[in-house]
């Protein structure tokens, strides 16, 4: 037996294993957005939720159109991590190379200091470290019918827009600017109008209604820091039901159709989820939630057999239908 060759092969296997393990542990993740966000003393800009194990390297590139000189700070959970000073006016770009440590999922934001005022044109962020993760998504997409219209909601460069198409042609849509944000959902009100729930770049949560004539009404909810949103119209109760996820738990609240009042948000039993959505067009609210790669459907189960053919029926336990994602 060639013990020298055997020892060499085992060392090579060990090196490959270490290299493979390092590749899995040390991650490089990043993205860029073009928000055209007015950054000033009153408005901070939430870039992303971030997490990781141990010390991380953070690179942030900030491109702004400066109206008034000052300082832009990068904050981690509200605490200043680093800053860049912008002098003069006009289009400027600066990069920050920072080091940070996470104990839990934390919000990374930009805040204006020392009198800074300007338009945030582009932000690029890269996080490098063990289990590095940036959870901000490119933006939600949703659609629903209402009366003679189809409403399509989408987010592009942090700007939410609803396109309303005539069902007869599905051409020449009317566009409505909703706000700045990337987490959103839409539902129809059956009369040609649409309700939109969304979280803006300052983490505020809003309900917006666009009626058949294009009039817009807004209601700010006393919520922030949500991870997913869903909204549905309850015709027989003449109310709007919103659901959202905060810290992994599902909460719900009801609002009046004219968006003049809403109830206090309450936890939805002990429900925990990563994503949520309402079944469109259901006679009564039916909530879908995603957790650990599985879809859960809350009562009522009007279309349980249809759903079972499409997403894989598993079981019903204590009023909860469990499915596997296929």
Concise description?
10% of the residues lie in helices and 62% in strands. By secondary structure, it is mainly beta. It has 2 domains: 108 residues, Galactose-binding domain-like (Jelly Rolls, Sandwich); 151 residues, 7 Propeller (Methylamine Dehydrogenase, Chain H), CATH 2.130.10.10.
Fold and architecture overview:
The chain has helices spanning 3-25, 304-311; strands spanning 26-33, 37-39, 45-68, 70-76, 79-86, 90-102, 106-113, 117-134, 141-146, 149-156, 159-166, 174-188, 194-200, 204-210, 216-224, 228-234, 239-246, 249-256, 266-272, 275-278, 287-291, 294-298, 313-317, 320-324. The protein has 2 domains: 27-134, Jelly Rolls (Sandwich); 141-291, Methylamine Dehydrogenase, Chain H, CATH 2.130.10. It has 2 helices and 24 strands. The radius of gyration is 24 Å and the shape is globular. The N and C termini lie far apart (50 Å). The model is unreliable at 1-11, 20-24 and 300-326 (pLDDT under 50). A hairpin with a 7-residue loop joins strand 11 (159-166) and strand 12. The protein has 326 residues and is mainly beta. Strands 1, 2, 3, 4, 5, 6, 7 and 8 form an 8-stranded antiparallel beta sheet that branches. Strands 9-10-11-12-13-14-15 form a 7-stranded antiparallel beta sheet, with no helix packed on it.
